[in-house]
Design a protein that fits this description.
alpha/beta, Rossmann fold, seven-stranded parallel beta sheet, two-stranded parallel ribbon, 10 helices, 17% strand
């Protein structure tokens, strides 16, 4: 299989590259923009994903069987500050890739998020109508529509509370944010260094989710491509959990002292300033059936993450 993976130097994308290229032997091409990987054992080339001509030319040269689109403008403040740039980076780039995928009969997999929901739709299923409360969620929802309505062979892969190892960079870009990303690694890094960790708890941040492990989500995306499935999929684990619950489960899985955890609101400087969905838990039962995939429990995800982390 030939796979073009956008955002392949990012957190989620680097794990998709790992699973597709090294786990399944796919021939991978990664378009790059602001960051160029060093000593990468896959093909990569610079490309502006908002330039329809450049995207079309790249896709015609490579002729992928599947395009997995994970690239985003990963700057929450800039999304609001530069609305037109943000829209082009999210929705415009997705449209360019859909048109290019159609031109070579490639499957188009769009990586979306649990933040397309408003935080009150607990246990949302794949067919639950989205209702985002912030601009990031709106643009992801718009991308889903571009793919579902425009791709000849399209799929939406929603991920939730993603944790794992950033395989393209030596350290993660942040320790804790208003979502669940990087949360587990941040706790482990801190407690193993002997530094107490304060788990944020507040009504205005994402407090409940259905955690994913990036490599497990990537494996589910591989199955979407390999089994030629279309539609919307929830590429996450089986169990929903609160931030507190995930922090305590992390201590148990990694053999850490839970007494080194504290709980409280974010610092004022870390306040989101925009609406954040409170409960973005997902139900992935239909996805598991469609992909013939056993959803991992939270403890199984954390056990696998520990193996990855300690390697």
């Amino acid at each position: 299989m030939k796979a073009l993976i956008t955002g392949g130097t990012g957190f989620v994308g680097s794990n998709i590259v790992e699973v597709f290229a090294h786990g399944h032997g796919a021939d991978v091409l990664v378009p790059t923009h602001s960051f160029t990987p060093v000593d990468a054992d896959y093909r990569h080339e610079p490309c502006d994903l908002t330039d329809a001509g450049a995207v079309a030319a790249m896709v015609q040269r490579f002729r992928p069987d599947v395009i997995v689109h994970t690239a985003i403008l990963n700057d929450f403040a800039r999304i609001y500050r530069e609305r037109e740039v943000s829209w082009n980076s999210y929705v415009g780039a997705t449209r360019c890739l859909v048109e290019a995928a159609n031109s070579v009969d490639a499957k188009m997999i769009f990586v979306s998020t649990d933040w397309v929901f408003d935080g009150t739709q607990s246990g949302a299923v794949e067919t639950t109508p989205p209702n985002p409360v912030n601009l990031y969620g709106v643009m992801k929802m718009a991308g889903e529509l571009v793919v579902s309505e425009g791709a000849a062979d399209g799929a939406v892969a929603r991920i939730s509370g993603v944790n794992g190892i950033h395989r393209a960079r030596p350290s993660v870009p942040r320790a804790q944010d208003r979502g669940f990303g990087y949360f587990v690694a941040s706790i482990v890094d801190s407690l193993r260094a002997g530094t107490p960790f304060r788990v944020w708890e507040s009504d205005d941040i994402n407090m409940i989710a259905t955690p994913s492990l990036a490599t497990e989500s990537a494996e589910m995306m591989w199955r979407i491509a390999d089994l030629d499935r279309t539609g919307t999929f929830h590429c996450c684990g089986r169990d929903s959990v609160s931030r507190r619950g995930l922090a305590l489960a992390t201590c148990d899985a990694f053999g850490l002292d839970p007494d080194q955890l504290a709980f409280g609101p974010p610092d004022p400087d870390d306040a989101p300033g925009v609406p954040i969905p409170y409960d973005t838990s997902l139900d992935a039962t239909a996805t598991a059936a469609a992909l013939d995939y056993e959803l991992p429990s939270l403890s199984a995800l954390l056990a696998k993450f520990r193996l990855e982390y300690e390697r």
